[in-house]
Amino acid sequence: MIQCTIIRRDMIDHNYRPGSRGYKYDVLLGDKIICTSIDPQYAACRALVKLGYKGGVEFYRSGKPEPDTFIRDLEKGAKLCTIENSTNEPYLGRYEKFDRSRVESPESKP
């Protein structure tokens, strides 16, 4: 089982301030940051799959001896994300890669 540590961004960067969507978290594999995200477990699954890992992963919070969460299958976890909006409680949904081409650039506005 792969072991990763999740650290809230403001714990290591004291100048960091959370954005409108909340805190960002760094996920470490050993001492290397593999991703930074507001949805760290599932973002880490995508990063680990991209790095060629298979199997399961345990997520630890800094200073805690037991894992907070574990995901048994990285490839399945990579297809998920936490979805939050103003009308519903957070829930698990299918991950869709952000399509930057759908966002207007400032130069294209009249």
Task: List strands and helices in order, with pairings.
Blueprint: E1 2-8, H1 9-12, E2 25-29, E3 32-37, H2 40-50, E4 57-61, E5 69-71, H3 74-77, E6 80-83, E7 91-94
Parallel strand pairs: 1-4
Antiparallel strand pairs: 1-2, 2-3, 4-5, 6-7
Model description:
- This protein has helices at residues 9-12, 40-50, 74-77; strands spanning 2-8, 25-29, 32-37, 57-61, 69-71, 80-83, 91-94.
- The chain has 110 residues and is an alpha+beta fold.
- It has one domain.
- Strand 2 (25-29) and strand 3 form a beta hairpin.
List the main descriptive attributes of the protein structure presented here.
110 residues, alpha+beta, 5-stranded mixed beta sheet, two-stranded antiparallel ribbon, 3 helices
Supply Rg: 16 Å
How many E-type strands? 7
Order of helices and strands: EHEEHEEHEE
Low-confidence stretches: none
| Strand order in the largest sheet | 3-2-1-4-5
Indicate how many domains the architecture comprises. 1
Percent range for β-strand residues = 25-35%
Silhouette: globular
The percent range for helix content is 10-25%
The number of helical segments is: 3
User: How far apart, in Å, are the first and last alpha carbons?
Assistant: 53 Å
Q: Label the structural class.
A: alpha+beta
Please outline the major beta sheet.
5 strands, mixed
